Each structure stands twice: as C-alpha cells, then as structure tokens.
C-alpha cells in the first residue's frame, strides 16, 4: 500500500486518509475518491490530498476484515457487515464465550495490519453482546497476511471464537443444619440460589433441609433424583475441609463419586465436584450464599453451557481466579447492583418499510404491487429487511392497505417479525408515513432504517452495511448510502432524531435533518446503483425489468 501526499490529478480511486471539510466540501476519511469528488476538490482549491492507494497484492480493509471474521466465527456467533476495516462478532444467545486463546495470539503475531480482540475466555455473554472484533489497522492489508490469518483460523478442527449457549437445568438443593442454624439463613440461600439458576435459564426444582449427616444427605439426594433433578447442590452447615468430610461422604453413600475437591479460585476455594448417576453434584463453598460472583458461578455457568468441568478444567481456573479484587466483575444476579457501563451490545436497529404512497407518477396502478423479478416491489423490500440484521420490521400501510398487506403476508413466513401499522394520513405526503412508523417503534430500538418500498435493488447486505456503520459514540448517528459520491436511500437514523422525525410534514421526509446535523452524518459508499434507483414511473419499472433479465 502506498500512503502519503498525492497530487489531486492522481487521486482518483485513492482512499482519502483524513477528513476534508472546507469550502463547501464535506468528505470523511476512508472515502474512495471518485472523478466527481476530484472535480469538487479542485474547485475548492485543493492541489494535493493525503491518501492511500492499494497495490495489486493488497486487500481493502473491509474485505479483509470480513474475510478474517468469517473464518474465526463458530457456533452461536453472528458476524456483522464490515465498516472502516472493522467486523464484529456478537453472541446469538446467552452463554459462555469459548475462545482459542493460543490461536488468537498466533493470529495477532502474523502482521500488524490484522488484529482480533476478544472477551476473556469463558466470559458470560448475553444475546447480542459483542464477543470479538476484527480490525484492519490501515486502509488495506496484504492479501498474504489475510490468507495466513485464515489458515490459522482453520488450523485446528474447532472454531476460534464461538458461544456455548446455556441450557435449562433442574437443580435440587440440599442444605444441612447444625444446632443453632437459623431458618432465615437457609431461606436467604434459597433465594440467592434461585436467582443464580434463573439467570441461566434454569430452575430450582426442589429443596431439602436435613441434619449435617452423611446418611441424611444421601437420603435427600435420592429424593431429589426421584423428582427429576439433573443437578445437585449441597450447602453444608459447616464448610467442606476434606475429601472424606460429611458432604462428600453423603454423596458417596448415595452412590455418587467425588471427582475433585478444591479449586484455585478465591472466593470459592472449598468447592467440591462429584457425579451421581452421570449427573453433576456440587458441594458448595460458603461464598455460594453470597450473590457476589465467585468460584461457584464459574462452575455453574460451564455446566449450564454443557462444557466439561472435570479436574483438568478446574485446575486451569487459577489464571483469572482471584475474584475478590475485581469489583467490576459482572454480577447479573444481584439486582441491587449496577455497572456504570454494561457490555457492548449490537445496536438494535429496526427497518421501516414505507408502503403507503399513492403511486401518482405511475399513472394508475399501485407500483408497490407491480412485479419485478417474480415478486411485487414491496415484497422485495420486506424480504430484504427480514434477511438483514434488523431486530424488527415495520411496514407502513396506507393506499390500498389491504392489498399491500395481503401481498406481503403471502410472501413471508406467518411468524416472521413483520408488524404492520396503518397511516390514515398517507395522502398528505411521505412525512406522515415516517411519523407513523417512528411512532410504532418500541423504546428498546436504538435506530431505524427508513426504507422505501419502491427500491427492489436494496438488499440485506446494503442494509447490514448501514447498520455496521452506525456508531453514535464515534459520531456516526445518521448513515447515508452513497454511489459514486451521490447520496441515496435508505437512511439509518439514531433514536435521538425520532422526536424531530415525529414532527415532520410534507412530502420530503427527513432530508433536511441531514443538512442540519452534518457533523453526525456518515456516508457509506455502496457498490452498484441500488441505493439511487427507485421505481416511480412505468418507464423506470420497464427499465428495471429489462436490467434484471439481461
């Protein structure tokens, strides 16, 4: 890759290294300069720009990031579209991040242009939480470096980054009593244990309170086993101090087998692992009565994720096992605690498909019901939204609402995440449909893509690229697709603009807000002409049909 000061007459096709905002020009860094861009810069008096030019043996940052990210991803991982050389991995379900740290280190040693950052191994993740990010440092990476990274990812017969989802367990709890043991303490332990299990999607199926005696423990385990429990927890009134203590003796009396006593985790040193008829048994340390994260949680999470927790796994928990000095450790069960900043989540983006217009320029028929490539225009739009990484799809109806809805429902799965909202004021212009759609979105949505129903070329990859560009923290709160420097549709809007969009009027939509918030606009260059091609007239429809069959 060549980088540096470039004469403006030689800059076409180069990547702008630094943003340029002056003399009527507003170009962001990373923009691939078109001939039209060069003309505008020359008109603004620019003679040179700092730019990057890729050589034949280089790969563009986005292509490189996507290539590496796909190679790394295993089960339970969703990979976002790449943007600014970054491609993220998000958890599909709640579970544990399973990472091959040795190979991740090896990949990061290959070339300074290719990097991957992850959560710690076995970190607990929630749905849509970021697990890893691949970042290409410069504007391009050597193809050879990308190829070596892919080879490292495929070197072993297992993925480098995956999520083991939690599975429901039916736990039975045995609590022993000594003279002076208060029921209030035991009741509190039940509550704490229930919260732990519930947070993992599991249940406390039964509880027994017995004397601190091996036979009593064995009898309680037999009862809980008969009730269908598949996990057994034993909280002794006195801590386990030896493999031959009361609790392990009770497990063996019930026909169980002790696997390992003790763990290199503090708090949690005195945890005991065992097995009863192929099902896990845990002798709990005293810290299990506390809602704070401890060694019991580390083992319980792995059991819920159906990961092995034998002696080999226990003894490896020492690195990172000093928990008492980590006040920021996530504690999802204690509802009274809160973190200043939670884990990084995938933005929750909705797509609003505007399908309420009267098609006045079409000369009669409703263009949204006109067929292109075997399906009505509106169906193309809805299917693209459903195939994207949007969390919700809202179709705004108006003109011929029943017919448009019927066309969509015929083409999509009955249980798809499509919702319909009717705009009674559709005759008053596009803005009324935007208002209706925005008003139908839940408060959990972070942003919305306003997608026109008459742009059949807009597919899921284009929508995903807009979502990948969205980052309010980095100043990218309005994401606009461009083709050769020309702005198009659909446009992604951060939630912060919803109140202003709810006050729109007329037929121009929210275009003026882009100008009013230029500092928050991110232009996202797209290939092809889908983002600037809509179907407004019979001629435009005929041209589209001709291109699609060519």
UniProtKB/TrEMBL annotation:
Span list, region Disordered: 323-345
The protein, known as: Molybdopterin-binding/glycosyltransferase family 2 protein
Residue span(s) of domain MoaB/Mog: 172-305
Keyword set includes Lipid biosynthesis: no
UniProt-listed CDD domains: GT_2_like_f, MoeA_like
Superkingdom per UniProt: Bacteria
Family matches, as SUPFAM superfamilies: Molybdenum cofactor biosynthesis proteins, Nucleotide-diphospho-sugar transferases
Source species: Reyranella aquatilis
């Amino acid at each position: 890759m060549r980088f540096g000061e470039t004469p403006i007459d030689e800059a076409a096709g180069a990547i702008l290294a630094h943003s340029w905002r002056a003399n009527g020009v507003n170009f962001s860094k990373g923009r691939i300069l078109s001939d039209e861009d060069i003309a505008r810069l020359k008109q603004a008096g620019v003679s040179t720009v700092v730019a990057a030019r890729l050589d034949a043996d280089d790969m563009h940052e986005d292509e490189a990031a996507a290539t590496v990210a796909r190679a790394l991803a295993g089960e339970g991982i969703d990979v976002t579209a790449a943007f600014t050389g970054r491609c993220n991995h998000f958890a599909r379900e709640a579970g544990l991040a399973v990472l091959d740290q040795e190979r991740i280190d090896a990949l990061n040693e290959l070339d300074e242009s290719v990097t991957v950052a992850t959560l710690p191994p076995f970190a607990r993740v929630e749905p849509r939480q970021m697990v890893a990010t691949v970042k290409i440092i410069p504007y391009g990476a050597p193809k050879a470096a990308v190829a070596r990274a892919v080879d490292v990812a495929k070197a072993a017969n297992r993925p480098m980054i995956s999520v083991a989802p939690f599975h429901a367990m039916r736990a039975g709890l045995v609590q022993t009593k000594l003279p002076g043991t208060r029921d209030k303490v035991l009741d509190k332990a039940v509550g704490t244990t229930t919260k732990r299990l519930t947070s993992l999607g599991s249940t406390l199926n039964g509880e027994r309170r017995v004397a601190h005696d091996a036979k009593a423990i064995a009898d309680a385990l037999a009862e809980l086993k008969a009730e269908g429990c598949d996990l057994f927890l034993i909280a002794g009134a006195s801590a386990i101090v030896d493999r031959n203590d009361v609790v392990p003796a009770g497990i063996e009396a019930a026909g169980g087998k002790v696997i390992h006593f003790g763990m290199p985790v503090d708090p949690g040193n005195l945890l005991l692992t065992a097995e009863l008829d192929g099902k896990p048994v845990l002798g709990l340390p005293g810290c299990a009565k506390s809602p704070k994260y401890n060694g019991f949680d580390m083992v319980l999470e792995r059991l819920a994720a159906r990961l092995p927790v034998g002696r080999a796994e226990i003894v490896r928990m020492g690195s990172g096992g000093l928990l008492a000095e980590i006040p920021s450790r996530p504690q999802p069960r204690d509802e009274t605690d809160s973190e200043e900043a939670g884990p990084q989540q995938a933005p929750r983006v909705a797509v609003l498909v505007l399908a309420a217009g009267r098609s006045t320029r079409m000369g009669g028929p409703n263009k949204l019901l006109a067929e292109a490539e075997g399906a009505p225009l509106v169906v193309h739009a809805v299917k693209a939204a459903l195939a994207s990484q949007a969390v919700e799809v809202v179709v705004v109806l108006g003109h011929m609402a029943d017919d448009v809805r019927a066309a969509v429902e015929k083409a999509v799965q009955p249980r798809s995440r499509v919702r319909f909202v009717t705009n009674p004021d559709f005759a008053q212009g596009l803005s009324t449909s935007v208002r209706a759609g925005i008003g139908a979105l839940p408060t959990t949505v972070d942003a919305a893509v306003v997608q026109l129903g008459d742009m059949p070329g807009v597919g899921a990859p284009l929508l995903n690229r807009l979502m990948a560009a969205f980052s309010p923290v980095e100043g990218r709160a309005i994401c606009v697709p461009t083709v050769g420097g020309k702005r198009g549709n659909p446009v992604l809007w951060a939630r912060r603009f919803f109140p202003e969009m709810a006050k729109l009027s007329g037929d121009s939509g929210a275009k003026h807000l882009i100008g009013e918030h230029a500092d928050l606009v991110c232009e996202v260059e797209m290939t092809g002409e889908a983002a600037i091609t809509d179907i407004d007239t019979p001629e435009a429809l005929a041209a589209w049909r001709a291109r699609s069959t060519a």
